[in-house]
Amino acid sequence: MTTAREIMTSGTECIGADESVLEAAKKLRSLGVGALPICGTDNRLKGMLTDRDIVVKVLVAGGDPSTVKAGDLAQGEAVTIGADDDAGEILRTMSRHKVRRLPVIDGHDLVGMVALADVARALPDPKVGDLLEALSTD
Question: pTM to 2 decimals?
């Protein structure tokens, strides 16, 4: 069966936990993505930061994106998938946690990202449809 390693986008870049949200926004724009993993100085995954987080938790709340740190927005442990986990586990994890992106971990190392679009390209339509339904309901 298809594994996360086979469908992920490799070369995923992190935003440092100590970097500003403004720097994160610039990186999101330059990479053309909507989310970045937040990594600590130990290179371990600390959480995820989305463009929506920046708008809702910083800008609308009156925060200064040049002084708020990306790590301040990391909430608990990030939902991840193992590089050798199969497509069924990807679907279950995305559905259970209602996430559209999963950092792919090999041991303790971030090796890529599986996004909903990756799943849509790699898996049969009915499975993707079930996932979209699960992500669209509360």
Answer: 0.81
- For residue 71, the enclosing domain spans 4-136
- Do residues 54 and 25 touch, judged by C-beta distance below 8 A? yes
Euclidean distance between CA atoms 21 and 25, whole angstroms: 6
CATH number of the domain enclosing 86: 3.10.580.10
Question: In this predicted model, what pLDDT tens digit does every residue of 106-120 receive, in sequence order?
Answer: 988 899 999 888 887
3-state secondary structure of 20: strand
Give the SS3 label for residue 65.
coil
Residues 36-79 have pLDDT tens digits of 999 988 878 899 999 999 999 999 999 999 999 999 998 777 89
